[in-house]
Amino acid sequence: MSYDERVRDLYRQQLEEIRQAGLFKQERFIHSPQAAEIEVEFPAGAARKKVINICANNYLGLSSHPEVVRAAHEGLETRGYGMSSVRFICGTQDIHRELEQVVTDFLGTEDTILFPSCMDANAGVFEAILTKDDVMISDRLVHASIIDGMRLCSAEHDTYKHGDMDHLEKKLQQWKDKRLRVIINDGVYSMDGDAAKLDEIVRLAEAYDALVFVDDSHATGFIGPTGRGTAEKFGVMGKVDIITTTFGKALGGASGGCVSGRKEIVEMCRQRARPYLFSNAMAPVIVAGVLKAFEILKRSTELRDKLEENARYWRAGLTEAGFILKPGDTPIVPVMLFNAKLAQDFSRDLYEEGIYAVGFFFPVVAKGQARIRTQLSAAHEKHHLDRALEAFIKVGKKYDILGKSEEEIVARYGL
Description:
Shape: globular
Number of domains: 2
CATH superfamily of the largest domain: Type I PLP-dependent aspartate aminotransferase-like (Major domain)
CATH architecture of the largest domain: 3-Layer(aba) Sandwich
Number of helices: 15
CATH topology of the largest domain: Aspartate Aminotransferase, domain 2
Oligomer: single chain
Number of strands: 14
Distance between the termini: 38 Å
Low-confidence stretches: none
């Protein structure tokens, strides 16, 4: 067997192991704009099917909003398709700085720097501002992009139990001799839908002279009374040192991200963050669309208010039906199934009922924590949610999980 065939055979075996374990992921092809209802081809080559989408990050329904689309067209016409350069060479247009100023004002910070994505922001920020003399203390459920960013940094890394403030305090005491201590959290945890206790985290940071970092990707635009994120929700705006967030979810759903916070930290990212220094600037068409998204947000809270009501309605309906949900008050509502194959089968049957909701399982979540992560949108109307509830209940009855405990589901289907 040639070297090439040996390599191919190695990966074929690994892929087959993934399939046999029920962990193989298949992509669906959408033939329509992102919306509450979409046209999907699944599996590849099958007839297209119109379904209700209950698992997108399109929280405010802005991904196909006519004003955002129109603004993107205008940005394309007036500023071109792409920058063909990084920011510090010839990749900075006036609208890039305009967006940075808009984000700074919206989040109540001192300055902002744009990145091609929030994953790039998280990959760049820690290495840019920390050294081996510092320590990063992260919640154990932080996003994968934060974990990757911390791996690139020479600072010490420690963790604290998810949401456990007593454990966090012990860690701060343990690392009191470090030059800098950074407490690292998601604002809203994307798999569980719960929010970091930012008021308590800030209190501990002030008591132990630590910095606070928050990735607010699943919060910016819709969490808090005016959508300014978890800092607003917990009354600590201006007290979070570093906020990273994305424009690829609630703010139009395209791409792009940023680091926003203390001006000196932002400037260090501008000087040293490698994804910023070595990646093309955000495309003008996206910048223009995001600027319009912020304009819509500042106009009224109508969209975030509708989203909040949709989330309450959906959570109440699933709870009444007898599903096991992760607790929370955000538009992320995980329906717990615990078994990877069950999550995939449940998702497949929902699709047959006209509901698009994807199963999540290891390595995206821990083993034994498989689920259908549902996400609400301001684009959903009550009839969408009622139809989706009908489908969830029908499929739930098929697998006999309604009203069952975690132990009963695991006993029947395993982990």
